[in-house]
Predict the structure.
Amino acid sequence: MKQTTAGLLLVVSGPAGVGKGTVDSALMARHPEIKMSVSATTRAPRPGEIDGTHYYFKSLDEFRTMIERDEFLEYMHVFGMNYYGTPKSYVLEQLALGHHVILEIDVQGARKVKQAFPSAVLVFIAPPSMETLKNRLIGRGTETSEAIEIRTQTAYRELEALPEYDYVVVNDSVDAAVDEMESIIRAELCSTAHNKELIENLLGGKNVTC
């Protein structure tokens, strides 16, 4: 028996502007077997968005039925308006196939996923410095100075949750950050927590192979 080939659930968080989406996309480009979890939402599709690709678009009744059936790893009611949630079915299906699944989500959602799925691996994408993060937000040219200040203060609050995460990756270079993500995956696949069957067989005296 070899070390596990089971899929990992990678929960990736980080402040706005840190580049977590860029890092995740680059990681998946290197490894097509890594999948991005698709969230469900009650908000209306935006131009160009495809159901099942960008989101699973649900009516309010459909979403509430999914809640009643315990079909979410986590869900949130954002600003008292729209619901967003992570359906269990897709995640569990991909993990069973041996694929790693990325769930890009905020700190509050990450806590809920860890409670529901303790084997999830929590990775926080951090900026090299807060000054760098602020400059990246300014460089996007899409927000007012007031909005940038709000995002910066939110980032400080999110950073306070860092000790709750298993790993921190500093995104100073996308390629280097992706290298570190690959190292995390390799380390987790060798961890005792993800190799319980191998350990049980060793302790039981069964033959194992390299």
About this structure: Residues 1-34+99-210 form a domain with the Rossmann fold fold (CATH 3.40.50.300). The chain has two domains: 1-34+99-210, 38-98. The chain has a mean pLDDT of 92.
